[in-house]
Design brief:
- The protein has about 375 residues and is of the alpha/beta class.
- It is built from 16 helices and 12 strands.
- Strands 2-1-3-4-5-6 form a 6-stranded parallel beta sheet, sandwiched between helices.
- Helix 9 packs parallel to helix 10.
- It starts with 11 loop residues before the first strand and ends in a 6-residue tail after the last helix.
């Protein structure tokens, strides 16, 4: 897709090979809020083929234009190939944004990890002028993995690539456009009065929400096995399982739907407004992710008033204080069981996370600087 803004006269090229989800949201945000941007994208389908071949496509579709000064792309693009095919683009300030990195992105077995995707990202960093990560965890995990990743090459291995890339690296959190929750009416505490005795067991059951993609890397197996244990202990709760589904949905979802049927309030993808309404009504948001480089869904849920429970790993300790983190599956079960027995604890709690620091309002000026020729 080419943007409606003419490339002629535009100073910033926004290039996105996988124009969907958070990648699309970021490109749209930049185009709408920063002057002089033109956009070139490909639909968010067949991720592996986009990573392999998008550079060749864009080399033929991006017109030559003397006004271009900056090129911004996600790390799905093999930037090295694009600037080799288009020397006129090589002269621009080249900014590479990492939503994720392929050196530590989880695969079922390490033998299944395709070396080429991570290798492309390393090469793209080497030709970039600025390499931007959406979290410190994303940056550190990438840089610290380059050396061991390159050891997969049987001989004549390159050395010290992390030392070449590190000086170019900056962390710039993903800018979340948080919703105005006031337009949805009453808060959860207004909707759920405490019973006459003021005890938690007289309140409406704890509402637990899981708002993630229905894929194995989000570890739904751990989430559902935890709730099934709570059910076996006759602990009461309500459940909403939201998030997008793709062509292959893990079997655990259909199994869990049967076993937890009496607890389910919402199941499956919802419209944006309905999704936000559920987050506002819910009490606790849970992540069981095996990988997370930032985590928009958790921050949105916290913004809507949910009490978060996250693994003490990945990006989470960077964003959430220790009281919201768990180490083991048993800790997660105990924390949820305690909140189920005293839902008022979650409902009255004010989460100690300043979501505004992750908002577009707070981060806009840094992005403006990034996309200027004077900025870092």
């Amino acid at each position: 897709m080419q943007s409606e803004v003419s490339p002629q006269g535009a100073s910033v090229l926004l290039v996105e090979p996988f124009y969907g989800g958070s990648h699309k949201q970021l490109i749209d945000l930049l185009q709408q809020n920063i002057e002089g941007c033109c956009v070139f994208t490909l639909p968010a389908k067949k991720w592996h083929w986009r990573a392999r071949t998008a550079a060749l496509h864009f080399s033929q579709t991006i017109p030559t234009c003397p006004s271009h000064r900056v090129l911004f792309s996600s790390s799905v693009l093999n930037l090295c190939e694009l600037v080799a095919l288009r020397p006129d683009l090589a002269r621009l300030k080249k900014v590479l944004y990492f939503h994720e990195n392929q050196l530590v992105y989880p695969v079922r077995k390490d033998q299944e990890r395709d070396f080429q995707y991570g290798y492309n990202q390393v090469l793209s960093c080497l030709v970039s002028d600025v390499v931007v990560f959406n979290s410190v965890f994303n940056m550190d995990s990438f840089l610290s993995s380059i050396s061991s990743f390159m050891k997969k090459i049987p001989d004549h291995r390159p050395r010290d690539l992390d030392l070449l890339i590190r000086p170019k690296c900056v962390v710039l959190y993903y800018p979340v456009q948080f919703p105005d929750v006031s337009r949805f009416g009453e808060s959860r505490t207004d909707q759920r009065p405490v019973g006459e005795g003021g005890t938690g067991d007289q309140m409406e059951p704890l509402h637990i929400v899981w708002p993630h993609r229905w894929e194995h890397d989000k570890n739904p197996e751990l989430f559902f096995s935890t709730l099934i244990k709570l059910k076996e202990k006759q602990v009461d709760f309500h459940l909403s399982v939201l998030g997008e589904t793709y062509s292959e949905v893990p079997e655990i979802f259909s199994e869990a739907r049967c076993q937890l049927d009496s607890h389910i309030q919402n199941w499956g993808y919802l419209s944006r407004d309905r999704y936000l309404q559920v987050l506002i009504q819910a009490d606790v948001v849970v992540s069981t992710a095996r990988h997370e480089f930032f985590g928009v869904a958790m921050l949105e849920a916290v913004h809507c008033g949910c009490y978060p429970l996250c693994p003490k790993a990945l990006v989470y300790p960077e964003i959430f204080p220790a009281e919201y983190l768990y180490d083991t599956p048993e800790q997660l079960r105990k924390r949820l069981q305690g909140l189920c027995r005293r839902p008022d604890v979650a409902r009255r709690h004010v989460v100690k996370v300043d979501t505004s620091s992750f908002s577009w309002t707070s981060l806009k000026q840094r992005f403006v600087s990034l996309l200027s020729t004077e900025g870092p």
